[in-house]
TrEMBL record:
GO terms for molecular function: transmembrane transporter activity. This is Fucose permease. It is found in: Cell membrane. The keyword Transmembrane helix applies. The chain crosses the membrane at residues 18-36, 51-69, 81-100, 106-125, 145-167, 173-194, 218-238, 250-271, 283-301, 307-329, 341-360, 366-388. It is a multi-pass membrane protein. InterPro entries: MFS, MFS_dom, MFS_trans_sf, MFS_Transporter. Signal peptide: none annotated. One of its GO terms (cellular component) is plasma membrane. Its main location: membrane. It comes from Marihabitans asiaticum. Residues 15-392 form the Major facilitator superfamily (MFS) profile domain.
Length: 410
């Protein structure tokens, strides 16, 4: 025990840094194409409803990939699954650029979005499984840090996107360069991943089926669904809403998107210590209320206060998704089965969200359609108890003692 512990701890810390990088690259990949949505909409001359249906293809890709993600990770490990997802996602976002500027086809863009979302979804589940393994090894609530890294990647990509939009850089050039960069960096980073314990990956067919009958797992899935909807709605529509609803130029719409992502990143960085000190429920309840107020400001206030609303909205929803994923993985022996269920339910928001907002936007405008966010946050508050740890007194470990522990319990 004298020599293996430092070795294991060093390996875990290296894996921790690698997971941070992989999450950041996933965020960059996602936000890169999302930052060009106003351009894609304009080039293809799409109505809000048509854009919603186009985005639906991405939702279908996600839901096709999510139920298979656990099995893929079981077969090839989280390292292999992340790599497969990264390559597929890179091919997909390049295809979005080709479909927009070279072919000029909504059908090609839809097919590319399907491939992108399928790849990123596989990548997402696999990296969350690796993150849960590393989190248990460290013995601290670090999952929000990984999702903060994802958010930081989205902020970087959104700011870059705003600059490139202002400079009239072609969509295809932008997306293809990011795709190449992401694949290369992820290929190097995953070499530091820790081995997948059989308790975390490959739990077998039985647990994967029975997890659907567990009340808590389903409720966590519903909570994650609302969290994904409140995030995804902003990701897909906030730039368009500011451009069409508040009358700002395209680059300023992307800045609103960047404000949302920046606040979400800050919330996730601060959230790690807050969760360890106070527990999940006490932290999430007021933050969700802040998100509701922020979303209402975005819709109902003039442009300047609306930008403040993007900050409140982003900060308030920041912890919902990562806490839901940690809750799904509380029991290492059933982490894969439960995370697969929770992810499948949660990502249902990406099936319902884009078309629902698009069709609603056709009737009341994209900006006013965002009122749906505040309504659904009520559902998140009703299911909040499902994500509580069995012993939140352990979860409220003092932030003044950040010493990593080798035990798997929190």
């Amino acid at each position: 025990m004298n020599e293996p512990v430092p070795t294991r701890l060093s390996t875990t810390r290296t894996a921790h840094r690698a997971v941070l990088v992989v999450f950041a690259l996933a965020g960059i990949t996602f936000a890169t194409w999302a930052s060009r949505l106003p351009d894609i909409k304009a080039v293809l001359d799409l109505t809000p409803g048509e854009l919603g249906v186009t985005l639906l293809a991405g939702s279908v890709g996600a839901l096709l990939a999510l139920p298979l993600a656990g099995r893929v990770a079981d077969r090839v490990g989280t390292t292999g699954a992340v790599l497969i997802g990264t390559v597929l996602g890179g091919i997909g976002i390049t295809g979005i650029g080709l479909g927009t500027e070279v072919v000029g086809s909504r059908a090609v863009v839809s097919a590319a979005l399907l491939a992108t979302s399928a790849g990123v979804s596989l990548w997402d589940v696999a990296m969350n499984l690796q993150a849960a393994t590393v989190e248990r090894a460290l013995g601290r609530s670090v999952m929000p840090l990984y999702h903060a890294s994802f958010s930081a990647g989205t902020v970087l990509a959104a700011l870059l996107g705003a600059a490139l939009v202002a400079l009239d850089v072609p969509v295809l050039l932008h997306l293809s360069l990011v795709a190449t960069f992401a694949v290369g960096v992820v290929l190097a980073a995953v070499r530091a991943f820790v081995s997948d314990p059989r308790s975390a990956v490959g739990a077998g067919e039985g647990p994967a089926r029975s997890a659907w009958t567990e009340r808590r797992t389903v409720l966590v899935g519903v909570f994650v669904l609302v969290a994904a909807f409140t995030e995804g709605t902003a990701n897909d529509w906030i730039a368009v809403a500011f451009v069409e609803g508040h009358g700002v130029p395209a680059w300023a719409g992307v800045v609103a998107f960047a404000c949302f992502l920046s606040a979400m990143t800050l919330g996730r960085v601060l959230g790690t210590r807050l969760l360890d000190r106070y527990g999940r429920v006490r932290v999430l309840a007021p933050m969700l209320l802040v998100a509701a107020v922020g979303s209402l400001l975005v819709v109902l206030a003039p442009p300047l206060p609306a930008y403040l609303g993007t900050l409140l909205w982003g900060f308030g929803v920041s912890l919902g998704f990562p806490v839901g994923m940690s809750a799904a993985a509380d029991d290492p022996a059933r982490a894969t089965a439960r995370m697969s269920v929770v992810a499948t339910i949660g990502y249902g928001a990406f099936i319902a969200g884009p078309p629902a907002l698009g069709f609603l936007g056709d009737h009341v405008g994209v900006l006013r359609a965002l009122l749906l966010v505040a309504v659904l946050i009520t559902l998140a508050l009703l299911t909040l108890g499902s994500v509580a740890e069995e012993d939140e007194s352990v979860g409220r470990r003092t932030a003044l003692d950040p010493t990593p522990k080798e035990s798997s319990g929190r």
